[in-house]
Design goal:
single chain, 158 residues, alpha+beta, Aldehyde Oxidoreductase, domain 3, four-stranded antiparallel beta sheet, 32% helix
Length: 158
């Protein structure tokens, strides 16, 4: 962490579900005036191929994944005045409506929290090494890289 700006950061990769209320309450403890969070869930339907999704299995590269997420969060707190950040990403087999990811950011003012949370999520989708396999109608397929995620991340380029 930057010596002049110590920000409480929590990064977890886990199989178990997370409690959004609990994670939000933790972020409230940090001289906060605003908390913005994002929760991603497993969709039950893939509109691109008009097919049901029965499950999604997420894999990652241990150690490398956490390091990439730390870099993303560090860039965020160097760019915006935030008071805390939490990123929790699940791995393993998940079912439709299961929570996948929680990104929470606290700040003294709302715009910093909004921008930081959006930035972290955009870069998480493009930089963090996660791989997804969807199972539908007894077939498994790797989820392709999404160009729209790449386009979303470009808005943050300097």
């Amino acid at each position: 962490m930057d010596q002049k700006k110590k920000i409480p950061v929590k990064i977890k990769i886990q199989i178990n579900d997370f409690d959004v209320s609990k994670e939000t309450k933790i972020l409230q403890e940090n001289q906060t005036g605003a908390i913005v969070s994002f929760v991603g869930v497993v969709r039950g339907f893939d509109e691109k191929i008009n097919s049901v999704i029965e499950s999604m299995t997420l894999e990652h590269y241990p150690g490398m994944t956490e390091l990439e997420i730390k870099k993303i969060v560090k860039q965020s707190y160097e760019r915006w005045d935030i008071t805390g950040a939490t990123v929790i990403h699940r791995i393993g087999k998940l079912l439709p409506t299961d929570q996948i990811v929680f990104v929470g950011v606290s700040s003294r003012h709302r715009q910093n929290a909004f921008d930081s949370c959006n930035f972290i999520m955009d870069w998480l989708k493009t930089k963090a090494p996660f791989w997804k396999v969807e199972e539908n109608e007894h077939q498994k397929k790797w989820v392709d890289y999404n160009l729209s995620d790449d386009e979303a991340a470009k808005k943050w380029s300097i």
